[in-house]
Amino acid sequence: MSEFATGVVAHVSRAEQAKKLARRVRAKVVSVDDGTRGATANHTLTLERLYAETKGDPTTWLVVLEDDAIPVRAPLKHFDLALRSAPESIVSFYLGTNFPRYWQPGVQKAIHEADSHGVPWIVGDHLLHAVGYAVYRHIVPELVEFLRSVPTLPVDEAITEWARRVHRPVAYTWPSLVDHQDDEPVISHIDGIPRNLPRK
Description:
The chain is an alpha/beta fold. The protein is 36% helix and 20% strand. It has six helices and nine strands. The protein has helices at 15-25, 39-53, 75-84, 104-117, 140-149, 155-165, and strands at residues 4-11, 29-33, 61-66, 69-71, 90-92, 121-124, 132-136, 170-173, 178-180. The two termini are 30 Å apart.
């Protein structure tokens, strides 16, 4: 059986929303940033706190959800079932539309192949989104050390960079177990592309 602990990362403008999400997923950690810490540092802090809070207990996975994540019904049950059978040590619960733009043809092809073969996992070498993901607990210290060294890199890109360096693929649950609320972004995207298409 997979044991996991969940954390929620939030911007102060979505603090109430984050609290509701945290109650729904029984989060051990809620980390609210007023914008001075930054998204990647907030994810890093959440992973660090989850790691510390689960020391000595049977937790094997740490789950991080952003404040605009919308989990499926009975999320704890579905997260548990997915993590029990996860083929890799980094799992994404969300595969979204339209962004990153240049990835969409490959994403659509992978989705078509997964549907055609009735398989529940899509495996790649990038974490394309950080809306909802899980990391096997024993790799967290090394991941956190790397994230601390690249605080200005978007967190999904930073985790991707580390995962590729250490040859750890990313497994996406298919279908996604988390959707994206897709409100106005609270951070600036370094690619400069307006998020004016659905990210769901």
